[in-house]
């Protein structure tokens, strides 16, 4: 028996994110604050070229190990299933589109910064409910996940915290769209 790198997009995403956090914490390089945070509304400088890259790279940076483990316990559980059903390149495109959409909307509408992969995790949560869809059907699992997920995020948004429930909801919306629009391979 041998260990197989079975989900290259998911595993590489997790390894890069963990490495960035480890390097940032071990050496105080300020990598996360420099390259992986999307500023809130009014904080985006269109003349600062790296700012455009942050619209996507924010999914790599995390505040700490608890934040990273919370996101990647979901991503590592669901990502390989999605890579098998949709293909690695399709999943990578879905991850990057979700990152870009959440980053852009955060810059345009929300005053707080955005950091982490929770939008991607929630994209995957909704998308995975489509893995066994049949033509013309809407999976009941999708409806239930959507209802529970929206209820939880709306309740959480009423609390004062440093979590972007908005990114979760947008990620879930992206996963829903991808599920309806992207046929399995």
UniProtKB/TrEMBL annotation:
Q: Which residues cross the membrane?
A: 12-39, 59-79, 91-114, 120-151
Full protein name: Rhomboid family protein
Recorded GO cellular component terms are:
membrane
Say which species the protein is native to.
Sediminispirochaeta smaragdinae (strain DSM 11293 / JCM 15392 / SEBR 4228)
Q: How does it sit in the membrane?
A: Multi-pass membrane protein
Q: Name one Pfam family in it.
A: Rhomboid
Q: Which UniProt keywords apply?
A: Membrane, Transmembrane, Transmembrane helix
* Localization, UniProt: Membrane
Residues forming the Peptidase S54 rhomboid domain are: 52-182
Example GO molecular function: serine-type endopeptidase activity
Q: What phylogenetic lineage does the species belong to? A: Bacteria, Pseudomonadati, Spirochaetota, Spirochaetia, Spirochaetales
- InterPro entries on file: Peptidase_S54_rhomboid_dom, Rhomboid-like_sf
Q: Which domain of life is it from?
A: Bacteria
């Amino acid at each position: 028996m041998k260990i197989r790198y079975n989900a290259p997009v998911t595993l590489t995403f997790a390894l890069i994110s963990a490495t960035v956090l480890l390097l940032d914490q071990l050496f105080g390089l300020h990598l996360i604050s420099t390259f992986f945070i999307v500023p809130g509304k009014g904080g985006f400088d269109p003349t600062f070229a790296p700012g455009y890259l942050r619209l996507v790279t924010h999914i790599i940076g995390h505040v700490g190990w608890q934040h990273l483990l919370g996101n990647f316990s979901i991503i590592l559980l669901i990502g390989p299933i999605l890579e098998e059903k949709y293909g690695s390149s399709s999943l990578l495109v879905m991850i990057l589109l979700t990152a870009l959409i959440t980053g852009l909307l955060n810059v345009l509408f929300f005053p707080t910064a955005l950091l982490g992969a929770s939008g991607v995790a929630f994209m995957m949560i909704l998308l995975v409910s489509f893995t066994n869809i049949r033509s013309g059907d809407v999976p009941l699992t999708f409806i239930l996940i959507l209802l529970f997920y929206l209820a939880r995020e709306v309740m959480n948004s009423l609390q004062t915290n440093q979590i972007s429930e908005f990114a979760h909801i947008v990620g879930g919306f992206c996963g829903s769209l991808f599920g309806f629009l992207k046929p399995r391979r």
